[in-house]
Amino acid sequence: MTAVLVPLVVLLPLLGAATALILGRRRRAQMTVSLGVLAAVTVIAAVLLVSVDANGPAVVYIGGWDAPWGITLVVDRLSAIMLVISAIMLLVVLVYSVGQGIADQHRETPVSIFHPSYLILSAGVFNAFIAGDLFNLYVGFEILLSASYVLLTLGGTGERIRAGVTYIIVSLVSSLFFLSAIALIYGATGTVNIGQLSVRLAELPGDVQLMLHLLLLIAFGIKAAVFPLSFWLPDSYPTAPAPVTAVFAGLLTKVGVYAIIRTETVIFTESDVTVLLMVIGGLTMLIGILGALTQADIKRLLSFTLVSHIGYMIFGIALGSQLGYTATIYYVVHHITVQTTLFLTTGLIERFGGATSINRLAGLLKASPLLGVLFFIPALNLGGIPPFSGFLGKTGLFLAGGEEAAADPANAWLVWIVIAAGAVTSLITLYALTRFWNMAFWRGRRELEGYESVLLGSVLEAPEGATVTATRTTPVLMVVATSALVMLTVCLTVFAGPLFELTGRAAADLLDAGAYVSLVFPGGIR
Amino acid sequence: MTASLTLVILMAVLFGAGVSIMLERSLTRVLIGFLLVGNAVNILIYLMSGAPGLAPILGEGVDPDEISDPLPQAFVLTAIVINLGITAFMLALIYRSWWLAQLGAEGDLVDDAAEIAEDAEEAADLIRSSAADDQAIQDLIDASDEEPDEDLELEASARDRDEEAKR
């Protein structure tokens, strides 16, 4: 029954995008359509999650053609979790951007393009999460990337065009890698269906498997911004409008992480790149966070922490144990929420304080205590302070690491090094965010003039110089949306028990590749 | 699996040329490089379908082993469509960055009212000049009506003379 709902999560946003484009001149109708569509998808995703968790995964063969001939859509627990959390994020950020748009009277951004592009982006993200074959995953990626090109260069100012060009070229290269990988995998196995690949790739010679595996990982690694393929992210995200950056930071890199999880669990069951992933995970954490230390601009600082925290998920994937995946999925959910929240809060800080650089902001706490709370909670959360979800996620990952180290003494030293790197990264994140807190929130307005600090002398401003915007009114809708997300991050702690149980079941699904295969091919593979 | 050597060489050349052009700084060249590499990947997908065969339509008396694999062709078609869309967007982006480089942000700040006034003035000029042209043409026509064409007159008089001579 619920299988009928599966295609709707892609279909509704696409139809909504078309309608929103037609209604381009009627802003109120357009907003109603996009909000309605995303609310509907959120409900559908929630229904799917409940049903999949209770009755097992839903599989849909488009057009009634059985796998491997037709296009297969698969929603298992991991897909359903990702669908729910991304639908909620997209909806809340849309509310935030509607609030912003109403306040700004649409002077800066051509909103008639914003809503359709935003819905198409959602369709791409959802499609990637439910794709049952590699080529459909590629199409999902392309849909979301094309929409993200438009959103990133919205308004076409020089700064955004320059940032957009880097982003677009890097994304194009990663798409070409992905497409080449699909071509070679098809040549080697004669299929792109993930279930069938799981069986056939394991039959290939080891070196061929490794080559195909690495090619896919490069493509997904660029999208997930994994070191050393992460250099593009801090240069391109911060220039976009605040809601766009929030969605990109929260969701787009996680689509890459999701693809890596699928690659490691279902697609390549035999090929093993644990050590490589472990090293890369550790380096991503450390190098990302060292970049964050040198930034004066909060948007760039957050972009570097974004890169850095992808490392935790890669570490969890590298562990490959059930506890490892349980913690990874929980961490993905936590990170999507908290990173989106922080970028939305940054948008509020920019409006309220008129700048995003720690050298220009001061006295925000006195001016707006609510803003202080909205920044403080997610910042502590990202820094991994108990009892917030960042702490729980990291603890889960470190426990899984300890378990793995005990089980596999040969690689134990490497696991312990990466755990140490994770702990250090967490502390440096906290340091970078507290520094921003001290400067922007605690420092009095009067201290700002003629302030010089040995420590701050070396921090880098954003390349374009801080864009100073006059203080405008902060609409209620934006504050409400941000507060809702802060509440959600707190809920991740409150409901951590049931959530960990759920991600644990999702992890068990993931590790049983055979179940995935028999799910897609109920009659066995011919 | 059999593959055409020509296509393999073509693919290698396209990959090489495309990557080297993509490394240039100019955006237009990057776009051209992307197109070349994109087509190289398309050829790679096509190569994976193996030896060419019959049209992939199953019917009576058709051996499934003899037909071409249609799936890579569908992949290539999809990839071509995606490339087309992205190329269009890149061209718009290139035009925009050229615009910004030539005119700067001031290029966007042209006053609408002033521009409309300017347009109206231009249109009025056009109407005036075309009215003048119309007048000139009309004058010419009128003039030709008043004065019969000399050549025609000469011809007519010559004809008259010939007729007289015949008589």
From TrEMBL, chain B:
Main localization of the protein described in the UniProt heading: membrane
Compositionally skewed regions (Acidic residues) per UniProt: 142-154
Biased amino acid composition, Basic and acidic residues: 156-167
Compartment(s): Cell membrane
Disordered: region residues: 137-167
Coiled-coil stretches noted in the UniProt entry, renumbered to this chain: none
Gene Ontology CC annotation, any one: plasma membrane
Topology relative to the membrane: Multi-pass membrane protein
InterPro entries in the record: CPA3_antiporter_subunitC, NUOK/Mnh_C1-like
Chain segments annotated as transmembrane: 6-23, 30-54, 74-95
Family, similarity comment: Belongs to the CPA3 antiporters (TC 2.A.63) subunit C family.
Identification of the protein by name: Na(+)/H(+) antiporter subunit C
